[in-house]
Design goal:
The complex is a heterodimer of chains A (346) and B (225).
Chain A: E1 8-13, E2 18-25, E3 28-36, H1 38-41, H2 49-71, E4 80-86, H3 90-107, E5 111-115, H4 116-122, H5 124-128, E6 135-140, E7 145-152, E8 156-162, H6 168-178, H7 186-193, H8 218-233, H9 240-265, E9 270-274, H10 281-294, E10 297-299, H11 303-306, H12 310-322
Parallel strand pairs in A: 1-4, 4-5, 6-9, 9-10
Antiparallel strand pairs in A: 1-2, 2-3, 6-7, 7-8
Chain B: E1 2-7, E2 12-20, E3 26-35, H1 40-55, E4 62-68, H2 74-91, E5 94-98, H3 100-108, E6 114-119, E7 125-132, E8 135-143, E9 155-156, H4 158-162, H5 164-167, H6 181-193
Helix pairs in contact in B: 1-2, 3-6
The chains are: A alpha/beta (346), B alpha/beta (225).
Chain lengths: 346, 225
């Protein structure tokens, strides 16, 4: 069956500060649109849930319309609606889920409440085709840092490890504040690090070699804070480029080491890295090098698809529909901490 | 024309479906209300679906939607608005806003002055003064019950019931406590029939988001300086 005969899935994502809508058939991305409220969060140094929720409500139907236009399809062409049911911010999730239910009711089409984290992995299929089974996925963003064993996107995802404190992207944001760099911290730190010497400072590598696939970044953040305060106390100028490079080196070293170890231990030859931090150049470079050395195929979606969007939810919806799973009911509840083992909510 | 009305700006989820008459009247064909402040998102869509089944109509038969725009606690309020926006978008029909306190006031049928108020959380109420069930005086507002000058008028709504200890005798007959979608539909049609504008279907928040611009990062070495 060609993708053309597959059901047309409309995906809706509102778990954080991006209102995303995407249209997908099988592994083909037809169109998508994202409205971000990030500008409204900048002065607060992080996402303010109520600000994000208000923005979602304003952006929801216009984003659906833009996505439909970009895909060149009509709402009446849609065969099923997929929506992020969790994990995410409660008020933000509820806007997308409420709208998705209304679209499903009005169009008389099935509704699927799906998992945001698994969506980040599923989106890679839109770029690189069907994912080999099994695959390992490293999910790194402002809200999540997870290592997953993906046996089947729709039915069998196993969590191997998670951050025990801050998410990797959150550590970037906090360190950026210490260095007087703007929010979100990923891009400015990545840029500053390119002029710095990663070996000039030795920052700790949290949970390095502890035999788990868990991560920890709060100790690293505190070490950077100590370094900054000590330099301040001694009246020394801050070498932002070196600090950024050394911090980034610590983060990507642990991330890539554990991801490759997981592939080797589970005999898996494909690693997917996704989430907002996957756009980081140091992470991509080191992952490419280590995967090459270990004979692992690395798949990283393009940055636009790595960050939160509706196409990732439609991509997972397509998998769930193809697996023949039952649709969600209209009383579908949001779940702010939906476990990654549940690709389909409820 | 078939009209669907609903409101999620109070602990109640209320919805009604019915026909509008040429004289601006509303004839309900099905209506339902339930009270559960924490489950608006789970309750609203199933309620709408069961109303269409009870009335023997399809959503595609709808001619317009009326939705409560609050004021009301934000998360629940947005469930109604997000649902209304998406339904209207998918069906290609008009979506009208109705101020929730106005719908509550309308349902009292009172001919004299009174104050309507609903719970705003954080020990505050959303409130407005009315000369009668159709006539609001001034804007809707949010305030702490103890700071509110009600002018000794009778009070209605769950805000009055919640703070009966503050308001005393004036809050002795707060019914109706929650808005009713059939009354909301009736009010919307009454206004439209008279050529009066209804509010845009956008939320009345009345408060800015709770957010503080952060200060300098906390020191990790307490002994510094």
């Amino acid at each position: 069956m060609s993708d053309h005969d597959l059901p047309l899935i409309l995906g809706i994502e509102t778990s954080c500060d991006e209102t995303g809508v995407g249209l997908v058939r099988g592994c083909e991305l037809l169109g998508e649109s994202v409205a971000s409220s990030v500008e409204q969060h900048v002065r607060f140094g992080g996402v303010v849930p109520e600000v994000a929720s208000r923005a979602h409500l304003e952006a929801m139907t216009p984003t659906v319309r833009r996505a439909l236009d970009s895909a060149g399809v009509k709402l009446s062409d849609v065969d099923a609606i997929a929506v992020t049911a969790g994990p995410g911010l409660a008020g933000a999730l509820l806007v997308g889920v409420s709208a998705a239910k209304a679209y499903a009711m009005a169009l008389d089409k099935p509704l699927y409440g799906v998992n945001h984290l698994v969506g980040h992995v599923a989106v890679d299929q839109l770029e690189h085709g069907p994912l080999p089974k099994p695959a390992i996925a490293l999910l790194v963003s402002g809200g999540h840092t997870s290592l997953l064993l993906v046996n089947d996107l729709a039915t069998d995802v196993v969590s191997l490890g998670d951050t025990v404190d801050d998410a990797a992207g959150e550590a970037y944001d906090k360190v950026a504040r210490l260095l007087d760099l703007p929010y979100p911290g990923g891009p400015p730190i990545d840029k500053a690090a390119q002029r710095g010497d990663a070996k000039s400072i030795r920052f700790p590598r949290g949970k390095w070699g502890d035999g788990t696939y868990d991560f920890s970044f709060s100790g690293l953040k505190t070490a950077v804070a100590r370094h900054v305060e000590d330099a301040d106390r001694r009246g020394e100028p801050l070498v932002v480029a070196d600090i950024a490079a050394a911090f980034q080196d610590s983060v990507v070293d642990v991330l890539t080491r554990k991801a490759v170890d997981a592939c080797v231990e589970h005999g898996v030859s494909t690693l997917v890295i996704s989430g907002g931090v996957a756009a980081n150049s140091a992470l991509r470079t080191l992952a490419e090098q280590r995967c090459r050395e270990a004979g692992i195929t690395l798949r990283v979606p393009r940055p636009r698809l790595c960050t939160d969007n509706g196409a990732m939810i439609a991509a997972l919806g397509a998998e769930v529909v193809a697996a023949g799973l039952p649709p969600s009911t209209l009383d579908l509840a949001t779940d702010t901490s939906l476990p990654v083992e549940s690709p389909l909510a409820g | 024309m078939l009209l669907l009305a609903f409101d999620t700006a109070t602990p109640a989820v209320t919805a009604a479906i019915g026909e509008s008459g040429a004289d601006g009247s509303f004839t309900p064909r099905a209506s339902a209300s339930s009270v559960d402040a924490r489950r608006h998102g789970e309750l609203l869509s199933p309620t709408i679906r069961s109303l269409t089944e009870e009335a023997g109509v399809a959503l595609a038969d709808l001619g317009a939607i009326a939705v409560g725009v609050g004021p009301g606690p934000y998360t629940g309020l947005r469930v109604g608005l997000a649902t209304a926006h998406a339904l209207a978008d998918a069906l290609g029909i008009a979506c009208h806003g109705v101020t929730t306190l106005d719908a509550l006031a309308f349902a009292t049928k009172r001919n004299g002055p009174f104050v309507a108020m609903t719970d705003a959380r954080r020990k505050e109420v959303f409130w407005a003064r009315y000369d009668d069930h159709l006539t609001r005086v001034g804007e809707v507002a949010v305030e702490r019950p103890a700071d509110l000058d009600t002018g000794g008028l009778p009070l209605v709504g769950d805000g009055a019931r919640m703070y009966a200890d503050v308001f005393g005798e004036a809050a002795s007959a707060p019914e109706p406590v929650y808005p009713d979608a059939a009354a909301m539909a009736e009010l919307a049609l009454y206004r439209l029939h008279r050529g009066e504008a209804l509010p845009e279907p956008t939320p009345l928040y009345l408060r800015r988001p709770d957010a503080v611009v952060p200060g300098a990062p906390k020191k990790v070495r307490q002994w510094v300086r």
